[in-house]
Amino acid sequence: MQVTNETSPRPEVAQAFFGDADHGPMVMVNLLKFKDKATYPDGRDPELSGRDAYNRYGAAVVACLEKVGGRVIYSGPVSGMLLGQVEEPWDAVALAYYPSPLAMLQMVALPEYQAIEIHRYAGLAGQLNIRTKAQP
Q1: Which of 14, 17, 74, 116 is buried most, with the most CB atoms less than 10 Å from its CB?
Q2: What is the full DSSP assignment across the chain?
Q3: Does residue 39 belong to any structural domain of this protein?
Q4: Structural domain span for residue 33
Q5: Alpha carbon 121 to chain centroid distance?
Q6: What is the pLDDT of residues 55-98, one digit of tens each?
Q7: Mind listing the pLDDT tens digit for each residue in 15-61?
């Protein structure tokens, strides 16, 4: 199995994901890999860790999720693996509930989301986003 962490979806992948006929509730599994040091476009906070930059995003994204009917289910560091092998494990896992893929699109369009996204990009080396069906 080949694994590729990314920070943004490719346009064709996003189109297929959001164009899918299944528009029900979903839980996004986020497998996160942080940069050693945050990299802001304006050069601010050069000693800040990638994890700390992402934590700025994580703290603020809660309100954005709530505005679209979503919520954080879980967020925490990876502390070990029992099954499987990867060259480099992820640093953290976050589970986010969305009432629909449309709600996710609405969230990322919010001005307050766009204002905090800089911390996400500053802190992330890459991630995997895995959509799962939310159980009623």
Answers
A1: 116
A2: -----BSS--HHHHHHHHH-S--S-EEEEEEEEE-SB---TT---TT-BHHHHHHHHHHHHHHHHHHTT-EEEEEEE----SS---SS--SEEEEEEES-HHHHHHHHHSHHHHHHHHHHHHHEEEEEEEEEEPP-
A3: yes
A4: 11-133
A5: 10
A6: 999 999 999 999 999 999 999 999 998 998 888 899 999 999 99
A7: 877 777 667 899 999 999 999 999 999 999 999 999 999 999 999 99
CB < 8 Å & 24+ apart, contacts of 102-107: 102/18, 102/23, 103/68, 103/69, 103/70, 104/18, 104/26, 104/28, 104/68, 104/70, 105/18, 106/68, 107/64, 107/65, 107/67, 107/68, 107/70
pTM: 0.88
Q: Which CATH number fits the domain that encloses residue 29?
A: 3.30.70.100
